Amino acid sequence: MTHLLDYANALVYLLASIALLLISLLLIGYGLWEVGHAIYHGQPYINVSLDAVGLIVISMAVFDIAKYLFEEQVVRDRELRSAREARRTLTKFLVIIIIASALEALVFIFQTGTTDMTNLLYPTALLVASVFLLMGLGVFQRLTAGNEQLLEGEEEKSR
Questions:
Q1: Distance between terminal CA atoms of the chain?
Q2: Least C-beta-crowded within 10 Å: which of 63, 94, 107, 159?
């Protein structure tokens, strides 16, 4: 029964990974289509291009999450067994989120800078939130590094 649940778990994560991958590719395709459409019809394409960059940034984050789910839940098929592994997994995931939100904030800042400077508060707040996420990750790394070394030392002594 346990093996059946393990296979079902892997299948669900595989399907979720494939769905996220397809959504990521669709976002990239849509962004490129919109830029091509604007250029072909002689429309201003700066704002469309910035929208496409935003879509591509989001699609990269979605793709990274799909890749992460596939690698961690389907290929490796293991639970987090050590403090080091949990720390690395959480760090990978948070780095994906931080990069995506920071890039999206930059795209929004550029878009707002070309249209209406009075709306600059919202993209700036997103950028500040990304910075706080990065600082939080740094604090997490700092606080857990000592515990990780302590646990590794205990594991080596028990061997």
A1: 33
A2: 159
Per-residue pLDDT of the chain (159 residues), as tens digits, is 778 888 888 899 999 999 999 999 999 999 999 999 999 999 888 888 888 888 888 898 889 889 888 887 888 755 555 667 778 878 887 888 888 888 888 888 887 877 777 788 888 899 999 999 999 999 988 888 776 666 666 666 666
CA distances from 143 to 54, 90, 137, 139 (A): 34, 14, 10, 6
Closest C-alpha among 100, 124, 116 to residue 24? 100
Q: Positive or negative CA dihedral for 53, 111, 65, 35?
A: negative
Would you say how long the chain is, in residues? Answer: 159
Extents of the domains making up the chain: 1-78, 80-151
The three-point CA angle 141-20-82 to 5° equals: 30
Distances (CA, A) of 144 to 26, 71, 99, 104, 137: 38, 24, 22, 29, 10
Q: What is the CA radius of gyration of the chain?
A: 21
Output the CA torsion sign for 101, 102, 108, 112.
positive
Is pTM beyond 0.70? Reply is no
